[in-house]
Write a structure and sequence with these properties.
The complex is a heterodimer of chains A (322) and B (469).
Chain A lengths: L2 H30 L1 H14 L11 E6 L1 H6 L5 H5 L4 E6 L5 H13 L6 E6 L11 H7 L6 H8 L3 H12 L1 H17 L3 H7 L7 H4 L5 H19 L4 E6 L9 H9 L3 E4 H4 L15 H16 L5 H5 L3 H4 L4
Parallel strand pairs in A: 1-2, 1-3, 3-4, 4-5
Helix pairs in contact in A: 1-2, 1-9, 5-12, 6-8, 6-9, 8-9, 12-13
Chain B lengths: L5 H16 L2 H19 L1 H23 L3 H38 L18 H16 L9 H9 L1 H4 L7 H9 L6 H33 L7 H32 L17 H7 L2 H12 L9 H19 L3 H19 L12 H23 L3 H9 L8 H27 L10 H18 L13
Helix pairs in contact in B: 1-2, 2-3, 2-6, 3-4, 3-5, 3-6, 4-5, 6-8, 9-10, 9-17, 9-18, 10-15, 10-17, 12-13, 13-14, 14-15, 15-16
Chain lengths: 322, 469
């Protein structure tokens, strides 16, 4: 073998490797990773939702991140619907409002037409323009929205190109998830390490103050854009703000959104959640989740999830009894 | 366009294919355009600055060569040095000096001095291309090399994209002839270039980025304050910065080889050094030799007695520290190394570099050097002196958590492969793994690196540390 033929062999092997891992990410990863399988299945269901589900119940898409996942952990969504709604949960971890602006655009583009879309996020996730690039690009961004997304996030040239490439390549988009799945199986204490290795906050919102004038304006603009995406296709949009141990100062933003006709429920305005309800100050533990489920049931009873219910702007719908 | 991004490799592929279709003249024009595109991709504003300073240095060097009158030659040299170091001072150190002056004024009770009058952005790679430009003008002044005839060739020498942002700082006598003369695009260096890139990627995205997870967690206090967390943080950062910068250098060298250029080796297993001076012969070689040739020798080197030698050593390292960044932590880092080198010299350890040592002595020396270098890295890593001392203060507290144990295993899993790789290179004297073996072994090494990169690259990409300098 000489250098020329060795180069050809090396290139061929690298190309085979890349093709193999791209194929695995497209076809095989969802089969070996339970989490990935659930995400793909939830997205596929979300994308095909019509206005009415089985038994003609109005469909409600609950879209959110791990806060929603922990908040409704172990809940039977069918029972929670109480014969009034058919709930569908779509969890995309480590996402915030800007991710969902484009995620919902993609769902709508793929044909999703639920009766209501309820975005369930924490107070720190309502504004900020930093995208979780590879994951977002692969799972939430429709290719035609690329130009809009990179402008909204104010990306530099490299990030712009990486966003497009991660959108086109399953492996680039799922790379982090594949590695996480591998580490979970091979590294002892991976859950403990994941907590210790937690990344820096993704946006100023995570460390900043949503009650500031700047924060209020940013939140209102962001949520109104999402409302426009959802309402544009005839679905009702609502925002459910998850509780935090220390409450939040979102009164001004909530008031402005309600004045603009957006249905908002700020859990912390109505119910006190203390540090004992959280595993880490943000994610609810089993005690907190049980409390949240009763709040959620109160909202179901008050008809908050439907356009008609949200239209009744009474104290009862703003703070329904659990 | 960082070296570990897909967009860089698409760019590199396009440039390599184009270069192979062009003749020498066309190659140089195309490479200049590609390098300016690469630089402008970051920030178009600073492209004009680099082009202007390249143009002026080109003319000044021609001026130096055109005259035999010593005073005129010196004038041209001084103008160039003032321009180059002036730009570096303005863009890199202005805020640092204004802030420092404000602090001193406040401490002396001279009233409030508004700090940060302007927020000045740092042009990417300015520290590196400035040193390369200074080396050129000094070499022309010393008549070591002739001035470059064509502006295009000089501009390409400064801006050739594989070294532009973070080196290796190329010596004019090494790179300029490669720019000017016909380059043979041979199969062997091309193949070696591919392997250098794969090994560099492994060093960066598998070793450094995973070590960064541990280092960041330790420095951010996620493991608490304890001796274990501090030691873990020191080891993790030591291998993060080594994997990061040696990986960058390997990718830069590999990219250059795909284009028919050869860059100097920048790292030679630095954590196998048996003394501090040995460490500096192995770490960031292009910078340490630059500092030796253009600063240490300029200051008088080891001529003029012991005291002056120590002073020159200390000053060189102090300025080398400051070159890394506008922060007192870098000055302290450089000062520690300067003091360490001086002490080592006074103990007569420098002359022992080639002595055969018994294994226990060898590893004891290596360990001492690693501990010293690791502690100095704390000042390099910390945002402030207080943060560095606070982090080192953790050494006084003894406690252990399960997370520390898991993190130590995780760290070992990423550091050991790099140590084994370095051990192999140390024994073989090679530039990349298995470079003296049959092609089959080399291909196997390359594919192994590729698989590791595909599966174990860290999730949180961290920018190459030296890009900020």
């Amino acid at each position: 073998m000489n250098a020329r033929s060795a180069t050809v062999v090396l290139f061929a092997l690298l190309a085979t490797l890349l093709a193999g891992i791209e194929g695995f990410a497209r076809l095989g990863f969802g089969r070996v990773s339970r989490m990935q399988h659930e995400t793909e299945a939830a997205w596929a269901t979300g994308a095909t939702l019509g206005r009415a589900g089985t038994g003609d119940l109005p469909t409600v898409l609950l879209a959110g991140n791990s806060l929603l996942e922990k908040g409704l952990a172990g809940a039977d969504l069918g029972a929670l619907g109480d014969g009034r709604y058919e709930f569908h949960e779509l969890i995309m971890r480590n996402t915030q409002a800007i991710d969902w602006e484009f995620g919902l655009r993609r769902l709508v583009r793929e044909g999703s037409r639920p009766a209501s879309v309820v975005l369930v996020l924490g107070p720190r996730h309502l504004w900020g323009n930093r995208l979780n690039v590879p994951y977002f690009a692969r799972y939430m961004l429709a290719t035609p929205d690329w130009a809009l997304a990179q402008r909204a996030a104010g990306l530099g040239n490299t990030a712009r190109a990486e966003l497009l490439l991660a959108n086109l390549s399953a492996w680039l988009g799922a790379r982090a998830e594949i590695r996480n799945a591998l580490l979970e199986k091979t590294v002892p204490g991976s859950a403990t390490l994941a907590h210790a290795f937690r990344p820096a906050p993704r946006s100023p919102a995570a460390a900043g103050d949503g009650s500031s004038a700047e924060g209020t304006v940013a939140i209102v603009q962001q949520i109104l854009r999402i409302n426009g995406v959802v309402a544009g296709r005839g679905s009702h949009f609502a925002l459910l703000i998850m509780p935090e141990a220390e409450g939040n100062g979102l009164a001004a933003a909530v008031a402005r959104l309600r004045a603009a006709g957006v249905s908002v429920f700020n859990t912390s305005d109505c119910y006190a959640f203390g540090p004992e309800d959280f595993s880490d100050g943000f994610h609810l533990n089993t005690v907190g989740a049980a409390k949240f489920r009763s709040v959620f049931s109160g909202l179901v009873e008050a008809g908050w999830f439907s356009e008609a219910g949200a239209g009744r702007s009474s104290a009862a719908t703003e703070c329904p009894l659990p | 366009m960082f070296f570990d991004t897909t967009s860089y490799f698409l760019f590199l592929l396009a440039v390599v294919l184009a270069v192979r279709c062009l003749r020498h003249d066309g190659q140089n024009w195309f490479l200049l355009a590609a390098s300016y595109f690469f630089y402008g991709w970051w920030d178009l504003r600073f492209l004009a600055l680099m082009m202007a300073s390249s143009g002026i240095d080109y003319l000044l060097a021609r001026g130096i060569e055109a005259t035999t009158e010593p005073q005129a030659r010196r004038r041209f040299l001084v103008v160039s040095l003032l321009m180059n170091f002036g730009l570096l001072a303005v863009f890199k150190y202005c805020n640092f000096f204004v802030d420092s002056f404000a602090h001193v004024a406040a401490a002396l009770g001279l009233g409030h001095v508004p700090a940060r009058v302007w927020q000045i952005a740092l042009p990417p790679g300015i520290s590196f291309y400035t040193f390369q430009a200074v080396a050129y003008i000094v070499d022309v002044y010393r008549r070591d090399i002739p001035a470059v005839r064509r502006l295009r060739d000089y501009a390409l020498f400064i801006s050739l994209f594989p070294h532009l942002i973070a080196g290796p700082i190329q010596r004019p006598s090494h790179l300029i002839p490669q720019v000017q003369n016909h380059r043979r695009l041979e199969a062997e260096p091309f193949f070696a270039g591919l392997l250098l890139i794969l090994e560099g990627l492994f060093r960066k995205i598998v070793v450094a980025d995973n070590c960064a997870l541990v280092a960041n967690a330790a420095f951010n206090g996620h493991f608490g304050a304890s001796a274990g967390a501090t030691v873990l943080g020191i080891v993790a950062f030591a291998f993060q910065i080594y994997g990061d910068f040696s990986g960058y250098s390997s990718i830069a060298r590999g990219s250059a080889q795909l284009l028919g250029f050869h860059f100097m080796v920048n790292f030679r297993q630095p954590y196998f050094a048996r003394s501090l001076s040995d460490f500096w012969r192995r770490w960031h070689i292009s910078l340490s030799t630059w500092l030796r040739d253009y600063l240490y020798i300029g200051l008088g080197g080891n001529r003029g007695g012991t005291a002056r030698t120590y002073r020159n050593l200390f000053l060189t390292m102090l300025l080398g520290g400051l070159w890394h960044g506008a922060n007192w932590t870098f000055v302290i880092w450089g000062g520690l190394h300067g003091a360490g080198l001086a002490v080592e010299r006074s103990l007569g350890l420098v002359s022992e570099r080639d002595r055969t040592m018994a294994l226990p002595e060898l590893w004891l020396r290596r360990s001492i050097v690693f501990v010293f270098v690791g502690i100095a890295w704390v000042f390099f890593r910390a945002a402030s002196l207080g943060e560095a001392l606070g982090f080192l203060g953790g050494l006084r507290q003894w406690s252990a958590t399960p997370a520390l144990g898991y993190a130590a295993i995780f760290l070992a899993g990423h550091v050991l492969p790099l140590l084994l790789l370095d051990r192999s290179l140390e024994r073989s004297g090679g530039e990349y793994l298995a470079d003296k073996s049959a092609y089959g072994w080399r291909i196997a090494a390359g594919v192994t690196f590729a698989v590791a990169c595909l599966l174990f690259a860290a999730n949180e990409q961290s920018a190459f540390i030296y890009f900020q300098f």
